[in-house]
Write a structure and sequence with these properties.
The structure is a single chain. With 198 residues, the protein is an alpha/beta fold. It has one domain: UDP N-Acetylglucosamine Acyltransferase, domain 1 (3 Solenoid), CATH 2.160.10.10. 15% of the residues lie in helices and 32% in strands. It contains 2 helices and 20 strands. Strands 1, 2, 4, 6, 8, 9, 11, 14 and 17 form a 9-stranded parallel sheet that branches. Strands 3-5-7-10-13-16-19-20 form an 8-stranded mixed sheet. The longest helix has 24 residues. Pfam families: Hexapep (PF00132). InterPro entries: Hexapep (IPR001451), Transf_Hexapept/Carb_Anhydrase (IPR050484), Trimer_LpxA-like_sf (IPR011004). This is Phenylacetic acid degradation protein.
């Protein structure tokens, strides 16, 4: 659902996909080839939220802020399932792990990876190419070229997903019997551990 609020209507590039079960409200600008998953809430009621090109905000994420603040999720930022971004800015090509919470005025550097379930305190500044884990979150090492290559490939899948959704997603009644010729999807992306083995 796309909601106008106090005169602000969200701007969504036609190449992007906002799932009908997501909620995008107010002063929100969504660039090209972005994916917004079901259950995501992007609330630009109290400040502006910009998603640059190629950003994905996955299922059940929340993006919001304190009144008067504005935030940017820079190009190819990748926000994993269930994460909360509250008044924080995300750098280019960063990865925010599932169920992570990033608090107000935090800055996540370009090409950083924040591990699942991390808690990034308000006003934390994470340098570019940092691997961050824990509660409270701490930088534990520098992100390698191989790790960024793995992350970038995963984000590219999400950048293709809007076009796939526009082309093939449709509401249907479920089947009652499993088809005999039902196939399993291709193995097009590996876990980081498997990726590093190759």
């Amino acid at each position: 659902m796309i909601y106008k609020f106090k005169g602000y209507t969200p701007v969504v590039h036609e190449s992007s996909f906002v799932h009908p079960l997501a909620a995008v409200t107010g002063n929100v600008i969504i660039g090209k080839n972005c994916y917004i998953g079901p259950g995501a809430a992007i609330r630009g009621d109290w400040g502006q939220i910009i998603l640059e090109d190629g950003v994905n905000v996955q299922e059940n994420c929340t993006v919001h802020m304190f009144p008067g603040k504005s935030i940017t999720l820079k190009e190819s930022a990748h926000v994993g399932h269930g994460a909360i971004i509250h008044g924080a800015n995300l750098g280019k090509n960063c990865l925010i792990g599932m169920n992570t919470v990033i608090m107000d005025d935090a800055e996540i550097g370009d090409e950083s990876i924040v591990g699942a379930m991390a808690f990034v305190k308000a006003e934390t500044k994470i340098p570019m190419r940092s691997l961050v884990v824990g509660n409270p979150a701490k930088v534990i090492k520098t992100v390698s070229d191989d790790m960024i290559a793995w992350k970038t490939k995963g984000t590219q899948l999400y950048q293709q997903l809007p076009a796939d959704c526009h082309e093939s997603l449709e509401e249907v009644e479920p089947l009652r019997v499993i088809p005999k010729n039902m196939k399993i999807q291709e193995d097009v992306y590996k876990t980081l551990r498997d990726f590093m083995k190759n």
